Amino acid sequence: MTMHQDKVGFLGLGSYTPQQVMTNEDWEQLVDTSDEWIRQRTGIERRRIVAEDENTVDLALAAAERALTAADLSVDKIDEIIVATDTPEVYLPDTASFLQHRLGTRSIPAYDLGGSGCAGFLQALDLARSRVICGKDRVLVVGVEVLTRLMDWTDRNTCVLFGDAAGAAVVGRSSEAREILAATAGTDGSRSEILTLEVGGTRKPFTVERAEQNLHRRIVMNGREVFKEAVRRMSQAAHEVLELAGRKLDEVALLVPHQANLRILRAVGKRLNLPDERICINVHEYGNTGSASVPLALDQALSAGRIRSGDLVLLTSFGAGFHWAAVLVQF
Ligand SMILES: CC(C)(COP(=O)(O)OP(=O)(O)OC[C@H]1O[C@@H](n2cnc3c(N)ncnc32)[C@H](O)[C@@H]1OP(=O)(O)O)[C@@H](O)C(=O)NCCC(=O)NCCS
Question: Which pLDDT band holds residue 1 (cuts at 50, 70, 90)?
């Protein structure tokens, strides 16, 4: 193999958001909240929600097809599929099985990475890169979430935060690849109770009594603690990945953080000493779209011409677990 073919990274990116827009004013009709509160505390103005006949795999498929088109690849060139989601198509089997079938790939391995919340896509990206280094030619990675279908629409503490979306990337080895220079990830399970959905597993199985209280949809969150951890871990992961690649913060053209909350993004920017124009922000339009958040923001930044050839782009995210991850890409 010649040196110029040695880059492992993005061959193509794609994303999809459902048509239907839900504004803060729409939420005012359903729970005791206000547009002003939501904007001030989160920066969110609106979010997309799925149509009745759309499920997780429909969003995943749309984003995956766009990533394949961007990579100029037919589906038979894909060797493995990883889907990061906490809102799967069904409980069993995983969403990747449905996606494999709908895409019409060969009988390649396909699997989900679930439970890592908003950090799922970057964890999956790190894995995909390793799989390519281990010999797979091309891996399709999808981050998809239909949070509005499974959350508690009566709990104002969480319901206003989320939206539905999908983002996808084809990762492979090519002289044209937007190279992944380094990746890092970490977990601290000791704080899992500050962001969790407990009912439905073996500890608290689904029962009619629990369902009647809407507990199977109740995301239990200590917002302030999550906020602090998110800022700390996303900034820390950003420093770590730069160090791994031997690069400096002032070389970073664009930071693409998980879009949890505008105040979190600003706080990360401040810690990293990056001005607003070097931070990718779309949380006002889409809310927190879980594992779809980073690939959606990245794909939109690329389509909008915010990323030029040669730019160093830093992806960082954080989610339930707690898990965090960062990936450094040379476009
Ligand atoms: C959730 C979050 C927006 C709350 O903002 P905050 O400034 O921490 O707010 P506080 O916790 O001080 O709560 C203030 C009050 O607002 C109330 N409140 C909560 N949601 C509300 C809503 N949608 N509308 C109006 N009031 C609301 C709370 O009940 C609380 O009232 P109380 O003081 O009477 O109990 C913020 O903590 C946050 O964004 N955390 C991170 C969440 C996140 O990103 N999760 C996903 C991580 S991947």
Answer: very low
pLDDT value, residue 6: 84
- DSSP characters over 75-130: GGG--EEEEE-SS-SSSSS-HHHHHHHHHT--S--EEEE-S-GGGHHHHHHHHHHH
* Nearest-atom index, ligand 1, CA of 33: 24
Question: 200 phi and psi, to 5 degrees?
Answer: 125, -20
Q: Who lines ligand 1 at CB under 6 A?
A: 33, 37-38, 41-42, 117-118, 156-157, 160, 221, 223-224, 226-227, 230, 260-261, 288, 318-319
Is there a cis peptide before residue 275, judged by omega within 30 degrees of 0? no
| Residue among 127, 140, 168, 149 nearest 291 (CA) | 168
Q: What is the rounded average pLDDT of the residues 65-86?
A: 98
Query: Which residues belong to the active site?
Result: 118, 258, 288
Nearest to 172 by CA among 3, 328, 4, 11: 11
* Phi-psi region at 80: left, alpha or beta (left = phi > 0; alpha = psi -120 to 50): beta
Residue written as token pair 């998809």: 144
Map out the domains of the chain with their CATH numbers. Answer: 3-177 (3.40.47.10), 181-330 (3.40.47.10)
In this predicted structure, the answer to whether residue 8 has a pLDDT above a threshold of 60 is yes
pLDDT of residue 123: 98
Query: Which DSSP helix (H) or strand (E) runs through 234?
Result: helix 223-245
CA of 4 to the centre of ligand 1 (A): 50
